[in-house]
Amino acid sequence: MAAYTFSIRTEAPRNVMYIEQRGRPTAADFRDLGRDFLAALAELTPGFSIINDQREMEAYDQEAMAVATELVSITNQHHAARVIRILPTDLLTAVTISSTLLQGKSQYASIRVTSPEESEAALKELL
């Protein structure tokens, strides 16, 4: 099990947030992510896009999923237009992420890609 780390940055002129996640998150890790996520949202306007690089993320437990589901709700409340996910090749992690989106009732377009290059191409196509 790898320690969880994340980074968040925004490009306000493009109305885009970039998130990179690595390792196996706990509920506390997702709460930390949520704190930084909310702060970064202040730099964006409704209709923003998120590129979330989860290639090196590991599956998480039910307690962490509950917090992650809250993050999906926050994303809905702030009116994201789309989240482009760079998904891991690990099937269990991909299924865990998909289950989180279903439980959180995501209301934004959820686009799955396999590389940063694909994510930028998808973003450019959609904008």
Structure, briefly:
This protein has 127 residues and is of the alpha/beta class. 44% of the residues lie in helices and 27% in strands.
Number of helices: 4
Helical fraction? 40-55%
Which geometry do the CA atoms define? globular
Low-pLDDT sequence parts: none
Give the helix/strand class.
alpha/beta
Summarize the helix and strand pattern as letters.
EEHEHEHEH
- Assembly of the depicted chains: single chain
Total strands: the figure is 5
Give the DSSP E fraction (strand runs of 2 or more residues).
Answer: 25-35%
Q: Report the span from N to C terminus.
A: 37 Å
List the main descriptive attributes of the protein structure presented here.
127 residues, alpha/beta, 4 helices, 27% strand
Structure characterization notes:
It is a single chain. The protein contains 4 helices and 5 strands; from the N terminus they run ββαβαβαβα. It is globular, with a radius of gyration of 13 Å. It has a 5-stranded mixed β-sheet with strand order 1-2-3-4-5, with helices on both faces. The N and C termini lie far apart (about 35 Å). The mean pLDDT is about 90. It has helices at about 25-40, 60-75, 90-105, 115-125, and strands at about 5-10, 15-25, 50-55, 80-85, 110-115. The protein is of the alpha/beta class.
